[in-house]
Write a structure and sequence with these properties.
elongated, binds magnesium ion, six-stranded mixed sheet, alpha/beta, 18% helix, binds adenosine monophosphate, 7 helices
Length: 395
């Protein structure tokens, strides 16, 4: 049997970062910057008021109360500005350019709010409530490095330096196909022998949470020809494909039957629980990676976390490897089969303990849904007493 680490290493040796493309800002959320973004101008581009108030000469408001004539009114976006002479004031709004002559802004709260003249009751020192040009970014300064994942704030600064498009590695497009003649779309009634199809929902959501674009291609039965046809349809628009089910040792294993003859996908036993049967390889001219995950719902989810998620990181141009474990004290005894690494479902608490959930079967989806962590038990350990420190992968 192959170890979990060997299987992941083989996947990461095959999967490549996606080529950067030029993305419109609307498409760039979650993409990974492939260029350095810098600002062509200083930000702010000009000195401006940080508050609604009055632009004055600080010397004129040193002794308060004082009443000054208001000679102009400047809103944000104003261009024609009258200079503020000695003893004068200009009503000014947040973001409006500072008029010449003024060296301070008196917030409206420190005044009577007058529009012809204003009574000021509190002094402002020079520079008060002024946002200086270049205070955030100097002209030419790099604001984002290549390799940065574009989140909402990063999108904001890209737009804020005047860019409409950026070069970035896009979110990988991942098509998810479930197999199994027993599967029925949720929302439809169950006939005897059937179950509601759930893996494609879990896996598509997991793709999205891992920075990819997940597409549910729905369920196919157990006919390898139908699966091949479905793969053919989706291959053109996929950066990766995930299948679930049909990779075990029984009869009617459509994924194995369809893909083994191609010679580019390997089906192996990986020394883990849950999730022993695993397929991985590439499809088509573009060598699109395909992850053939086992069908049991817990197995397919754990396999995703261990193998697909790091592969998506690699495709996004990010550091990729095993999920980082934390250490916790286990609140009950654990058992694990010899020679296989176990990933038991548990609840990680803020007091540094982890409690295995009731129901560790690989079909027990409700137990998985009640967990927030995987407890890792190494290959050579079969029993873990209560109170032991264990490695835990937070979900
Ligand atoms: P398989 O790997 O196809 O032998 O499936 C293993 C177990 O997982 C069987 O009990 C299947 O009914 C179940 N299973 C397979 N695919 C799904 C799915 N998409 N949703 C829910 N259960 C599934
Ligand atoms: Mg099946």
């Amino acid at each position: 049997m192959k170890s979990v680490d060997e299987h992941l290493a083989e996947i990461l040796a095959t999967v490549r970062p996606l080529a950067p493309i030029e993305l419109e800002l609307e498409q760039a959320l979650g993409a990974t910057l492939a260029e350095e973004v810098s600002s062509p101008v200083p930000l702010p581009p000009f000195d401006n008021s940080a508050m609604d108030g009055y632009a004055v000469r600080a010397a004129d408001v040193a002794d308060v109360p004082v009443t000054l004539p208001v000679i102009d009114d400047v809103a944000a976006g104003s261009v024609e500005l009258r200079a503020v002479g000695p003893g004068h004031s200009v009503r000014i709004m947040t973001g409006a350019p500072m008029p010449a002559g003024a060296d301070a802004v008196v917030p409206v709260e420190w005044t009577d709010g007058g529009t012809v003249s204003v009574r000021i009751t509190r002094s402002a020192t020079a520079g008060n409530a002024i946002r200086r040009a270049g205070e955030d970014v100097e002209a030419g300064e790099v604001v984002l490095k290549a390799g940065t994942v574009i989140g909402p704030a990063q999108l904001g600064i890209i737009a804020g330096v005047g860019r409409r498009r950026v070069w970035a590695r896009p979110r990988p497009r991942v098509v998810v196909i479930s197999t199994g003649a027993e599967l029925v779309e949720p929302g439809s009634p169950l006939l005897p022998g059937q179950i509601w199809e759930s893996n494609s929902f879990t896996l598509t959501a997991a793709v999205r949470e891992s920075g990819g674009e997940g597409f549910r291609a729905g369920a196919v039965g157990d006919d390898p020809a139908v699966l091949l046809d479905r793969l053919d349809t989706h291959l053109v628009r996929a950066d990766a494909i995930i299948t679930s089910g049909g990779v075990s040792m029984g009869a009617y294993e459509p994924v194995k039957e369809a893909l083994s003859p191609l010679g580019t996908v390997r089906f192996e036993k990986v020394a883990m629980q849950p999730g022993m049967p695993q397929g991985f390889g590439v499809l088509g001219e573009d060598r699109v990676p395909i992850f053939a995950l086992p069908g049991n719902p817990v197995s397919s989810f754990v396999s995703f976390m261990l193998f697909v998620r790091p592969a998506l990181d690699r495709m996004r141009g990010l550091p990729a490897g095993m999920p980082e474990p934390v250490t916790a004290r286990v609140t009950g005894p654990l058992r694990s089969p010899a020679g296989r690494r176990s990933f038991l479902r548990g609840v990680l608490a803020s007091d540094g303990t982890v409690s295995p959930v009731h129901g560790q079967g690989s079909h027990q989806l409700a137990a998985l849904a009640s967990a927030n962590a995987l407890i890792v038990v190494d290959e050579d350990v079969t029993e873990v007493p209560e109170g032991t420190s264990v490695e835990v992968i937070p979900l």
